[in-house]
UniProtKB/TrEMBL annotation:
<feature type="transmembrane region" description="Helical">
    <location>
        <begin position="43"/>
        <end position="61"/>
    </location>
</feature>
<keyword id="KW-1133">Transmembrane helix</keyword>
<keyword id="KW-0812">Transmembrane</keyword>
<feature type="transmembrane region" description="Helical">
    <location>
        <begin position="6"/>
        <end position="27"/>
    </location>
</feature>
<keyword id="KW-0472">Membrane</keyword>
<protein>
    <recommendedName>
        <fullName>Dolichyl-diphosphooligosaccharide-protein glycosyltransferase subunit OST5</fullName>
    </recommendedName>
</protein>
């Protein structure tokens, strides 16, 4: 019973992080696309957040 509860909590946290990171990546992508061409844009946070969103999405689907 306790393990089922932990599994449900882990799925909720993974799903929440997945949704948050995809929303963050979307907003960051909009910021990058709107920025001026002469302004230097770092895409490291964009790529890292996108990768981690897919990882947490995989975790959420494996806990389901």
């Amino acid at each position: 019973m306790f393990l089922e509860f932990l599994k449900a909590v882990a799925m909720f946290i993974s799903l929440s992080m997945c949704i948050f990171l995809f929303a963050y990546v979307y907003i960051e992508g909009l910021r990058i696309s709107i920025s001026e061409k002469r302004e230097k844009v770092e895409a490291g946070t964009f790529l890292t957040s996108l990768l981690m969103a897919f990882v947490f999405g995989y975790f959420a689907s494996s806990f389901y």
